[in-house]
Amino acid sequence: MDLLSSLDLSKKEIGRIFELADRHMPAHSRSGPLLALLFEKSSTRTRVSFESAVHGLGGSAVYIDSRTSQMSRGESIGDTARVLSSYVDIISARMNRHQDIVALADAADVPVINALTDLEHPCQALSDVYTIKKHFGRISGLRIAFVGDIAANTANSLMVTAAKMGAEISLVGPDACEPSKAYVDGASECSLVEISNSMQDGLEGCHVVYTDTYVSMGQEADAARRRKLFAKYQINAKAMRYARDGAVAMHCLPAHRGEEITSEVLDGKASLAWKQAANKMPVERAILFYLLNNAD
Ligand code: CP
Ligand code: NVA
């Protein structure tokens, strides 16, 4: 039997469907949690690791590309959030503007997770700091350099998360790229934050040398200027020698080989980038469990 037209259904069939709908209430009768992944921007790692993470909790995920949803035709974020809340248990969203994820969370009745905005990438920072802790056995007392676009979403989240856990932060980038005051202030409340335009000075004594793309999603129109602005701040073998012996190179990925990092470093012994990517899954699984169960 098909359902193609309202003309095809008898009164009896309509009544039967209503009875069945009643029998399957309440709506949240699934065994595991259902996660909505609402994405306005591209993703490989965050999307798949969240899908894998929720499967690990016995649940499942539904991916909504905002570009093919009614959001692209003007349905408000608030209305979208209210509707999604009646279908799913938790939402992970990747939004262009940070203020939009705040609006989404305000209107949603279920927990909302930031899967990246223009200002922050908090889940990335949690899995990166987890990766650093796994490698060094501690965070406290380490010195972590973020190099290049020190105003990037990843820089903001990493400096605050790592500083809260006791690491010193060294931001290394051109004078024309000012780090965000709110995040520098937040990190400075917990630990030392230093800013330098010199690779040699900024990397001295660092255990971790972290970088990200010069051109984040949404900045494509400014790509040529940004590539020139950050060109001196590439993580290469020489830059790694400025850091302390045993220092590691980190990158949230995707990498632009030959721009912000060389293949020699990214694929070399000091690279933690692949562990970072792998660790997104268990840490996101922990985030989902924590938010769904409000667990200590
Ligand atoms: N690191 C990260 O967030 O990667 P994706 O953009 O592929 O999700
Ligand atoms: N700063 C990058 C991070 C990608 C994971 C961006 O926003 O595009």
CATH homologous superfamily annotation of the largest domain: Aspartate/ornithine carbamoyltransferase
Bound molecules: phosphoric acid mono(formamide)ester, norvaline
Q: What is the terminal separation in angstroms? A: 49 Å
User: Which CATH-level-2 architecture of the largest domain?
Assistant: 3-Layer(aba) Sandwich
Task: Give the ordered list of helices and strands.
Answer: HEHEHEHEHEHEHEHEHHEHH
Q: Provide the low-confidence segments as ranges.
A: none
> How many structural domains does the protein architecture include?
2
Largest sheet: 5 strands, parallel
Task: Give the SSE map.
Layout lengths: L10 H13 L10 E6 L5 H12 L3 E6 L11 H9 L4 E5 L3 H10 L4 E3 L7 H15 L6 E5 L5 H12 L3 E5 L8 H8 L4 E4 L2 H5 L4 E4 L11 H8 L6 H6 L5 E4 L11 H4 L6 H21 L3
Helix pairs in contact: 2-12, 3-4, 5-6, 5-12, 6-7
In short:
The protein is α/β, with parallel strands linked by helices and 296 residues long.
